[in-house]
C-alpha cells in the first residue's frame, strides 16, 4: 500500500507517530506547569 492509500486510524504507523508526538507534548506541558506552579500534576488535576 502506498502512503496515500493507507488508513489513518487504528494501529497504523501514521496514527502511532502522532500518538507518540502528542504524548511527549503532554508530558512536557505537565512538567513545565509543575515547575511553574510548584504543585504536582495530580494535585493540579484534583486527584492528590
> DSSP helix count?
2
| Sheet/helix structural class | mainly alpha
What portion of the residues fall into strands of 2 or more residues?
under 5%
Helix content: 55-70%
The radius of gyration is 16 Å
Q: How many strand elements? A: 0
User: What is the N-to-C succession of helices and strands?
Assistant: HH
The largest sheet is: none
Mean pLDDT across all residues, rounded?
86
Give unreliable regions as ranges.
Answer: none
Shape: elongated
Distance between the termini: 47 Å
Report on the architecture of this protein.
The protein is mainly alpha-helical. It has a domain at 13-44. It has helices at 13-37, 41-44. The chain is elongated, with a radius of gyration of 16 Å. The model has no long low-confidence stretch (mean pLDDT 86).
SSE diagram, text form:
Layout: H1 13-37, H2 41-44
Summary keywords:
48 residues, 60% helix, elongated, mainly alpha, 2 helices
Short description:
It is built from two helices and no strands. The protein is an all-alpha fold and 48 residues long.
